[in-house]
Write a structure and sequence with these properties.
Layout (H helix, E strand, L loop, with lengths): L1 H7 L4 H18 L6 H8 L8 H25 L11 H10 L3 H35 L3 H17 L5 H15 L2 E2 L6 E2 L13 H19 L16 H10 L1 H16 L4 H16 L11 H25 L5 H12 L13 H35 L2 H20 L2 H19 L4 H28 L2 H6 L2 H36 L1
Antiparallel strand pairs: 1-2
Helix pairs in contact: 1-15, 2-4, 2-15, 3-4, 3-14, 4-5, 4-6, 4-13, 4-14, 4-15, 5-6, 5-13, 6-10, 6-11, 6-13, 6-15, 7-8, 7-18, 7-20, 8-18, 9-16, 9-17, 9-18, 11-12, 11-13, 12-13, 16-17
Length: about 500
């Protein structure tokens, strides 16, 4: 009962106001390319220093929740993920918007995000100490194999050629090696430029690879950017609920995947959404429709990446290890206020912890009306804005967003160069998603590999370190399975087509 009382404290007028403001601000910030969830949380940390700790956490958690969901707006309506975790949302969200169903796609994203957020929040409340033990089992080698698993997923999900997907992932890995090495401090591929010492900034690369090609295509094609709806259909809430009910098992599976992946520090929403998307595609009887505007694709990705919000706080609170970058910022805010993570969070500081958990659940529920309201007008605005205004507005936001990350004008140059290169590569069938994921997962893979290799040298068995642990073998088996699945699926379809053609000929 005491725990319930702490959680109900989140319903005080002041905390409710903070939750509403945080969700709305997070949605708007997350929908703008370059203004990620991490940046939104980091910028507002100083504002919280004068607040009670539980209220400060509720505000930061609400902003985080709203920003992760807000990234789907740009992914659906502009084919540009507002946050890295919304990359997979572009696969089916933008095709839906192109055929005039952008309003339905936004509604599905909202419903999925609320479900995923609630599952992640409830997991944080019910299973935090238990599930945090899983994170302790993961060492450097497991993170290396997990990164390889993530690269295999995005490559195998590439439209067209699997080989081109792997080529894109390889390009991303090469980009991730620019600058000072993660382990050892060696300087690589800077070509004498001090600006490249810090490497290729991930958000700048994401903006360039996704935004610039869209801008070029908008200028190059005379047709409308999005197909306007034939009549005013509102938010199409009933249709969205019907589709969610049909895909309830997909949503539940994706939420569980998102929560579990978030427990592993450093994995984050990008891997969670890709694993969920891959599983949804594998299990769906309409797998051939994925990538062409399949609603189940949006349900899978948005449920998973919002489940990472609650799931990521499990290792943050229990172990003091942030599950995602925004968790690291919120952990810093906790430490500034004099709180220590670990068992004390659930004993001495239980009132703060459980009030925050209640606030996170409240913010997730508030995301439904606020998201539907903002999403409705966002879709109408994007559809009705002429290209002559839309293109320079997006271009301006990309430049400002890129510069604001590190206040470095060279990042803008990198963004433009990668954008043009991404446009050229897309014309050859190499999509931006494998490149971006290679860039994100590259440092994780490199750090895990180097540390594992050093451990192997110290013990006299490098192979034993990489292939001798049950968790590693399990991840390797999944990697091989997902790498071979597209080839097996294509061969099965080809064989089936030959059988059908033979039967028709006879």
């Amino acid at each position: 009962m005491e725990t319930l009382g702490f959680m109900l404290a989140a319903l005080s007028p002041f905390n409710l106001l903070l939750a509403v403001a945080g969700v709305a601000a997070g949605i708007i910030i997350g929908s703008l390319p370059g203004l990620s969830a991490t940046m939104a949380v980091a910028v507002l940390v100083p504002v919280t220093f004068g607040m009670p700790t539980e209220s400060a956490l509720i505000l930061l958690g609400a902003i985080y929740t709203g920003a992760i969901y807000g990234g789907s707006y740009a992914a659906i309506l502009v084919n540009t993920p507002g946050t890295p975790s919304a990359i997979a949302t572009t696969f089916d969200g933008y095709p839906m918007a192109r055929r005039g169903d952008g309003d339905l796609a936004v509604t599905l994203s909202t419903l999925s995000s609320v479900i995923g957020g609630l599952v992640g929040g409830l997991a944080l409340f019910c299973l935090a100490p238990l599930l945090a033990l899983v994170a302790l089992k993961f060492g450097p080698v497991e993170y290396f194999w997990l990164a390889i698993f993530g690269l295999t997923l995005i490559s195998s999900l590439s439209e067209g050629s699997t080989l081109k997907g792997f080529i894109g992932a390889g390009i991303g890995l090469l980009l991730s090696t620019v600058g000072v090495a993660v382990v050892g401090g060696d300087t690589r591929y800077t070509f004498g430029s001090q600006f490249l010492l810090g490497g290729v900034e991930t958000i700048s690369a994401l903006i360039g690879l996704y935004c610039i090609p869209v801008l070029i295509e908008l200028v190059a094609t005379p047709s409308e950017h999005l197909k306007p709806p034939e009549a005013s259909r509102g938010v199409r809430f009933r249709e969205g609920v019907t589709l969610m009910f049909k895909g309830k098992w997909n949503a539940l599976r994706s939420a569980i995947i998102g929560t579990i992946v978030a427990i592993l520090p450093g994995a984050g929403g990008s891997i969670a959404s890709l694993v969920s998307y891959s599983e949804a595609r594998r299990a769906s009887p309409r797998s051939e429709q994925f990538g062409k505007g399949e609603p189940d694709g949006i349900i899978a990705t948005e449920t998973a990446n919002n489940a990472t919000v609650g799931g990521g706080f499990i290792p943050t609170f229990v172990l003091g290890i942030p599950g995602t970058p925004p968790d690291a910022v919120i952990l810093g805010a906790l430490l500034v206020q004099g709180f220590r993570t670990g068992p004390e969070m659930f004993t001495t500081n239980a009132s703060v912890t459980y009030t925050f958990m209640g606030g996170l659940l409240v913010a997730t529920v508030l995301m439904l009306p606020i998201g539907l309201l903002i999403g409705r007008y966002a879709f109408k605005s994007i559809v009705s804005v002429p290209k002559a205004i839309l293109v320079p507005t997006i271009a301006f936001m990309t430049v400002i967003g890129t510069y604001a990350i590190r206040n470095n004008p060279f990042d803008v140059v990198v963004m433009v160069v990668l954008g043009v290169a991404g446009w050229l590569l897309a014309r050859w069938g190499i999509k931006p998603s494998p490149i971006v994921l290679g860039l994100i997962l590259g440092p994780i893979a490199e750090q895990g590999f180097v540390q594992g290799y050093l451990m192997g040298n110290a013990t006299g068995s490098v192979a034993g370190v990489f292939f001798g642990r049950p968790l590693s073998l399990g991840i390797i088996a999944l990697t091989v399975l997902f790498a071979l699945y597209p080839l097996w699926s294509a061969r099965r379809k080809r064989t089936h087509g030959e059988v059908v053609a033979h039967e028709q000929s006879t």
